[in-house]
Design brief:
The complex is a heterodimer of chains A (114) and B (111). Chain A is mostly beta strands. Chain A has strands at 4-5, 10-14, 19-25, 32-38, 45-51, 56-59, 62-67, 72-77, 86-93, 103-104, 108-113. Chain A is built from no helices and eleven strands. In chain B, strands 2, 4, 5, 6, 9, 10 and 11 form a seven-stranded mixed β-sheet that branches. A four-stranded antiparallel β-sheet of chain B has the order 1-3-8-7, with no helix packed on it. Classes of the chains: A mainly beta (114), B mainly beta (111).
Chain lengths: 114, 111
C-alpha cells in the first residue's frame, strides 16, 4: 500500500517556464511534507518543506502548495533552469515520537530543456 | 559539517559473500535511517534507529540483512550471504527532527 504517490514518472519543461510536480497521499495523519532533489550518483538533498498548518511555503524559485482536503501537494519551480534537471521525491511524516521517519514517493524525473 | 558519510562508495562482490556497508551520521543527529533504491521499488526504508536503538526493521527484506548502531557516530548494514537481487544503491540518512540528510550512497553489485 503506497501512502505517498507521484503518478508522473517524468516531466519535460522548457527553460524559463514553470515546472509543476505533483504528489498525492492517503494518510490523513501526515503532518509534515518535504521535497527532495536527487542528481545521479548523489544522495537525495532536502529542498523545501511544509507543515500541515500551512497551505503554501516559498523559497526563492521553489514553492510548495498543500491541499489537505484533496490530500495533494505540489512543487512549483519558476523559472525552471537546466540545473533543475533531477529526480524529485516528495515525502511525508506523521507524528511518531519525533523520530523523523519519512514515507517517500516513487519520484518524478524532471528534464529542463535549454 | 562533513554531512553523512558512507563507505564504500562502490562495492562489487560475488554471490554468497558477506557485504558490510558503513555510515557515519551527522554529529548531533539522533535518528539514523537505511534505505535501498532500485528501479522497481524506488526508495525503500529498510530500518531506522532512534538514539542508537532500532525502532522499526519491518523493511528489512529477510534474515540475510542485519543492521547495528553500536554508538551515536557509526552504523553498519550487513548482508550475509549476498545475492544478485541485492544489487542496488544503499543510502544512509540521519536527522534531528523532520528533515533527513542523506549520504552519497553505496552502489552494490552482487555478481
Amino acid at each position: 500500500d503506497q501512502q505517498v504517490k507521484q503518478n508522473s514518472p517524468s516531466l519535460s519543461v522548457q527553460e524559463g517556464r514553470i515546472s509543476i510536480l505533483n504528489c498525492d497521499y492517503t494518510n490523513s495523519m501526515f503532518d509534515y511534507f518535504l521535497w527532495y532533489k536527487k542528481y545521479p550518483a548523489e544522495g537525495p538533498t532536502f529542498l523545501i518543506s511544509i507543515s500541515s498548518i500551512k497551505d503554501k511555503n516559498e523559497d526563492g524559485r521553489f514553492t510548495v502548495f498543500l491541499n489537505k482536503s484533496a490530500k495533494h501537494l505540489s512543487l512549483h519551480i519558476v523559472p525552471s533552469q537546466p540545473g533543475d534537471s533531477a529526480v524529485y521525491f516528495c515525502a511525508a511524516s506523521a507524528p511518531s515520537g519525533n523520530t523523523g521517519k519519512l514515507i517517500f514517493g516513487q519520484g518524478t524525473t524532471l528534464q529542463v530543456k535549454p | 559539517d562533513a554531512g553523512v558519510i558512507q563507505s564504500p562508495r562502490h562495492e562489487v562482490t560475488e554471490m554468497g559473500q558477506e557485504v558490510t556497508l558503513r555510515c557515519k551520521p551527522i554529529s548531533g543527529h539522533n535518528s539514523l535511517f537505511w534505505y535501498r533504491q532500485t528501479m522497481m521499488r524506488g526508495l525503500e526504508l529498510l530500518i531506522y534507529f532512534n538514539n542508537n536503538v532500532p525502532i522499526d526493521d519491518s523493511g528489512m527484506p529477510e534474515d540475510r540483512f542485519s543492521a547495528k548502531m553500536p554508538n551515536a557516530s557509526f552504523s553498519t548494514l550487513k548482508i550475509q550471504p549476498s545475492e544478485p537481487r541485492d544489487s542496488a544503491v544503499y543510502f544512509c540518512a540521519s536527522s534531528k527532527q523532520n528533515i533527513q540528510y542523506f549520504g552519497a550512497g553505496t552502489r552494490l553489485s552482487v555478481l
